[in-house]
Amino acid sequence: MTDMNRIRGYRARIGYTVAAVTTEVYPIDWYRVVPDGVSLMMITLPLGNRSKEDVENCYRISIEGAKTMAKAGADLVVLGGLPINISKGDDTVDGLMENLSREIGVRVSSSAAAQVAAFRALGSKKVVTVHPFLPDQNPRHERTIREFFGLTPVGEYAGGSSLAALGTLPPARALEWGRAAIAAHPDADTIYFGCPHWSVIDAIAPLEQEFGVRVMTSLQAIAWHSMRLAGVDDRVPGYGRLLSEH
Amino acid sequence: MIRGDKYGYRARIGYTSPPLTSEVFPYEFYKVVPDGVTLVITTLAITVRSAAEVNQSYDISMKAAEQMAEAGCNAIVLGGVPINLAKGAENAARMIQDLEKRLGIPVATSASAQKEAFRLLGCRKLVVAHPYKSEDDYRFDDYARKFGASVLGTRAWGSDFNKIGAIPDDAALGMARELMKAHPDADTIMFPSPHWPVINAIEPLEKEFGVTVMSSIQAILWQALRLAGVKDSISGYGRLFKDF
User: Fold this and answer.
1) If phi over 0 gives left and psi between -120 and 50 gives alpha, with beta otherwise, what is residue B234?
2) Higher per-residue confidence, A238 vs A98
3) How far is Cα A237 from Cα A205, in angstroms, rounded to an integer?
4) pTM value?
């Protein structure tokens, strides 16, 4: 029964800048994970070929979008897109969030900060990364794990898809790729699924149970961190240790 | 059992969402559509609905439509009547034809979806409840004329454009009841804008007053589903979804 007096985001309204021209999977998985009353405000960004100019344009729009979401009543703004967040250098992310938060009067976080906090909460040390893109993205992921997160990259698994095709990947694919990644790198203590715009959340719990490892995904980290920063402390079962135990 | 098929296994609907931020639309979309239908959304540039924002949004819509087609959407709806009609009604009709030819998938606009819904539902005498300030009332008189109907009365919630996500769930219901009390000869309650919460008000109002309720989100979703080949009769959200 709907409580008709309430606004949609009666517990928390989370603003999020989506690092893609279109988004399909993110809102579906978001509303599967968060409890009723936690709403998502989205802005899509014109991220294309990830060139320097492209990323800088998205960075600028992210900042303007954050201001708009604050005016619209967001309780928290999360800047999405790890490559965009760290485009001014790894060491500028915290400063960016602090300055922007002061300017707009609303707490600001980022997908990068959410993932740092998630790795820390899970106690991850040796990470195998699974991403849906071509293998030419492996060095970028390897570098991010080592340099930005300060963890040990033990390997990467590239699904071979593209940004345009992310919405066509079935949930079973993440499970298959996760199994392949851990089979190739059994010394990993954590499977990390980068990018929150493909269907991953159904693979988290099965992989944690099957291999006794931690599974951390971008969307899981962003939803978890957003809720905790916005004061929503519910433990959510079914989508891994991060959401059910931390 | 983990799903072996993609989320949008029946249809993937592209939608260009006019406000710079989108909050209510995706939520209400998934309340209405059957399992296996997904939303592929691009947000546009509207914060105050200036001419510059409308023109910029028109351009973004055209680029987004191409990306949606490339991503494999089964149908596209270009949102925002002011954006759809920014270059005139004739251009809007031509634009749909041109895009369909170029992209190879069905295309509609918010304006064309609502026009078709008005026609099928036989809407003639409207009362209009909208989320904006009362200075926007005149726009809906104009829309109604374009859709072949007239407006008997209007209520405005009074929100700024960028704050309509914070309107309570019961606002549409309350405004519509006041309007029907003041104008009992109305045959249709119209809720313009698909970005404030109206979906829960449709069925109770149709039952309570024996009228038709026509909302933008209902028209957009109905048109998108039908264009994408999803012909399900959907209960709980008004005559349009159930009977057409």
Assistant:
1) beta
2) A238
3) 9
4) 0.93
Element of type H or E holding A156? strand A152-158
Question: Per the CB < 8 Å rule, is B168 touching A7?
Answer: yes
* Segment 190-209 of chain A within 8 Å of chain B by CB: 199, 202-203, 206
For the cut 70, the answer to whether the pLDDT of residue B164 exceeds it is yes
Residue found by looking up tokens 């922007």 in the block: A100
| Predicted-assembly ipTM surpassing the 0.85 threshold | yes
Q: What 3-state class would DSSP assign to A76?
A: strand
- pLDDT per residue over A86-122, tens digit each? 777 766 778 888 888 999 999 999 998 999 999 999 9
Residue A178: closest CA among A198, A195, A157, A160: A157
What single-letter amino acid sits at B40? V
Contact check, Cβ <8 Å, B12/A164 = no
- Residue by residue, DSSP assigns B46-63 as ESS--HHHHHHHHHHHHH
* Extended beta strands in B32-124, E state: 37-46, 75-78, 107-109
Question: Which single residue is written with the structure tokens 């993937």?
Answer: B12
Nearest partner of A28 among B205, B190, B9, judged by Cα? B9
